[in-house]
Amino acid sequence: MTTTAQNIARRVRLALVTGELDRHRTYTERELLELSQSSRPVLREALRVLESEQLVTVRRGAHGGARFSSPGTLHVARYAALLLYHSGTTLGDIEDARVLLEAEIVRDIAARRADVRAAESVLVAEAAHLDQPDELPRHASAWHRALLGCAGNSVLDVVLNIVDLSLRPLAEVARARTAASMAGRRNLQQSHVVHAQVLLRLSQGDADAAADLWLRHTRAGERLFSAVAARERLDLLDLIDGVTPGEESPRSFKGADIIAASLRRRIVTGQLREGDRLPTEGALADEWGVAAPSIREAVRILAAEGLITPIRGSHLGPKVRPPD
């Protein structure tokens, strides 16, 4: 059952997409009450759901208010991560998908003679760091992203960003190991040569040659991932919790966020299965040592994500619904 707060949250999401809400100003609670035509408790429920989705930052106090943010890839990636983790996706699975998808994107860029000047500019920056092994991996990755961005397809951009977020922790380790060895540094320098060759094939409009060269190049990169890692289950729990992989200063989490994250992990790891019930509000309050409102907020966050089905008027806890 959809609550009034969830309806308001849905309307806010739509208003953000259509531009009805100004992301460059702070809204007071009074303004939001007038816009939503709701009560203060209901509005605050909706804002807490939107906070968990990182679509709003609420500053409390006499001079506080709400400042809205554009929907970002991280929010989409969290839900993709829920499904991937729950289905037992391995590192090898997602790396194979990335390699095949990127090769077809390069083929399309060549066939359409798309503008690749952005990738050419990054290639110049990469060349300037060939003798700096600590910096070269970062510039090589930037070249990959710049080239694939030349496809000019927003759907592909979102998909590739999700893949990048998922693989980032492993990729950072692999790049560090590569830069630390003499053979690895030679491979990075050779990659620069391949990048230049790919751009040459693209300028010639040779789609098959460009895609084949890219495929061989990225397949070689897969060797950075060990045979064991390729069979390991993809570790996306930080991403599922809303923490950007590699983030130096993760955002601060509030009590309800932490409780929701713990319950979410129990669901995606199978500790709580479909049809199981969450502990009652009182039991969760005792477990966490918090007041009932914090538990209710956590439950509302999970309900908005579709991971539980609250049952009004029942003394039992909400039913669990795994990601689908």
**What amount of the residues lies in strands?**
under 5%
The SSE string, one letter per element, is: HHHEEHHHHHHHHHHHHEE
The number of distinct helices, counting runs of at least 4 residues, comes to 15
Structural class: mainly alpha
* Spatial strand sequence of the major β-sheet: 1-2
- How much helical structure, as a percent, in the residues? 55-70%
**Given the C-alpha coordinates, what overall shape results?**
elongated
Q: Give the biggest beta sheet.
A: 2 strands, antiparallel
State the end-to-end CA separation. Answer: 18 Å
Mean pLDDT over all positions: 79
> Uncertain regions: pLDDT < 50 for 5+ in a row?
248-252
**Cα Rg:** 23 Å
Number of strands: 4
Q: Any overview of this molecule?
A:
By secondary structure, the chain is mainly alpha-helical. The chain contains 15 helices and four strands. The protein has helices at residues 4-18, 29-36, 40-52, 73-86, 91-111, 117-127, 136-149, 154-180, 182-204, 207-221, 227-231, 237-240, 255-268, 281-288, 292-304; strands at 56-59, 65-68, 308-309, 319-320. Strands 1-2 form a two-stranded antiparallel ribbon. It has a two-stranded antiparallel ribbon with strand order 3-4.
